[in-house]
Design a protein that fits this description.
With about 350 residues, the protein is mostly beta strands. Helices cover about 0% and strands about 40% of the residues.
Length: about 350
Amino acid sequence: MGITTSQPTQSDGPTQIGRNDPAGQQCGATPSDLWGYFGATPIAQPSGPGQKAVTRGLACGQIATIKATSLTPTTVAANTTAEYIFTAVVSTVSVWEVAANDVVFVNKPTSQAGLGIGNVRVASTNSIGLTFSNYTAGTLTPSAQSYGFVAIRGMAPLSAVLTPAAVQPNTTVEQQFNVPGLRTSLVQAIKPTAQAGIDIVGVRAVSANTLGITFTNATAATVTPTAGETYLVFEAAGLDAVNNDLLIQWLSATTVTVATSSIAEQGFTVTNIATTDMLVGVSKPTATATLGIVGFRVSTTSTIGVSFYNASATTTATPPTTDVYTFNIVRPNPAAPLVV
């Protein structure tokens, strides 16, 4: 039912909407009803992450930062793309692993002539697939270095079945798709499979419900992205700092040797840990004979100190280098991870 109003000839004050009902007033009967204000095109009630930070039943909202130390990606042939898959956490006893529907962002710490990074996906549990593009006439090997990854979980992404058009040789092109529910904010789109020659090099929200994906074709032949694939689309219209608890997993490459009947502290370099953070718990995933944890602290900025006691009076003890430690930290004043 439409409501049409005419321009009043004389104003007696602002027009009141509502009828002083003690039960209140409602706009729309269902979330799918379209409403518009101040001349805007009517839309359905937004339900993106800017309105509800996490979706109930999705194991809570989590943002995980992962430092992949000294990755050595495989060589990428000339004028094509190649996906490199790596294990996110090098341990079978880690308490947090990347999983399906996690949205992953990546940072390669240095630029490399001729080489690009595009699609990042969860290939399988605890495995991340990273696609490299080589635009040169010779083979290139991505630098062996420490890559940074951020995985976001608990904010229900959109999914869209897309059938892109062909991409011409040695070029990039943006293709636009209708994705109901998409809002104009920071956007990430994930192609569910790797495809030789094709990569994603740009994603944007063109407008409400319209997604723009820039595809690149690094080959000398026309390539068409696979039709009918379900892309994961993530829009982040502002993430609030709503949790003071931090969970950190850390693999120690070096360990301290603890002398007989004594205590020794081992330092763990954890970037951005502050002296105002409160370390409330440490979990060592395996037991080491005669060795116990008797203390822990944030010793200096970006350093966690764990004190080990060796109960043996005859033999020194050393923690294993394969243990992934879990630190539980309370941060009094967390910063918002994303502000629009």
